[in-house]
Design brief:
This protein has about 150 residues and is mostly helical. The protein has 8 helices and no strands. It has one domain: AhpD-like (Up-down Bundle). Helix 2 packs antiparallel against helix 8 and helix 6 runs antiparallel to helix 7. The longest helix is centred in the last third of the chain and has 23 residues. It is globular and about 40 Å long. It starts with 9 loop residues before the first helix and ends in a 10-residue tail after the last helix. GO terms for molecular function: peroxiredoxin activity. This is Alkylhydroperoxidase AhpD family core domain-containing protein. It comes from Micromonospora cremea.
């Protein structure tokens, strides 16, 4: 069901929000986590939240970062495919846990955190957590206000 947006994207209506969003983006992408990993994280978070606009932009961004169609199609089933590195799997597991906070009492279990910490340093972990939160932020804006994905891929 494709619907019309309720309002323009809130971030575009409030100029300071755009500035803040850009700062969050730059901060998350500034410490050395591979851009492709962050794109996969954004895509997976957006799939979980059902944000069509962000799934679309996430897939497009991942393609620009060099992702293959094979890997993009498999993100939702990353545990069952051989296409992802151990570091990417750790980032995706952390992203899923941090997105589904209400699904279990210990929202981000120690084993999920420890596996991510095995592959990423403290600043990189901070960047991934910040990017998960930012992705969730964009998903909530878009889903609440029914922001559509583009009609066709260009």
């Amino acid at each position: 069901m494709i619907t019309e947006p309720r309002i323009q994207n809130p971030a575009s209506l409030l100029p300071d929000a755009v500035k803040a969003s850009n700062l969050l983006y730059r901060a998350a992408h500034s410490v050395g986590v591979p851009g492709s990993t962050l794109e996969l994280v954004h895509l997976r978070v957006s799939q979980i939240n059902g944000c069509g606009a962000c799934v679309d932009s996430g897939a497009r961004g991942a393609r620009k970062a060099g992702e293959t169609e094979e890997r993009l199609f498999a993100v939702a089933a990353w545990r069952e495919t051989p296409y992802f590195t151990e570091a990417e799997r750790a980032a995706l597991a952390l992203a899923e846990a941090a997105t589904r906070l209400a699904d279990r009492a210990d929202a981000v279990p120690d084993d999920v955190w420890a596996e991510a910490a095995r592959h990423f340093g403290e600043k990189e972990l901070a960047a991934i957590v910040l990017w998960v939160a930012t992705s969730n932020f964009f998903n909530r804006l878009n889903v609440t206000t029914r922001q559509p994905a583009p009609q066709a891929w260009g």
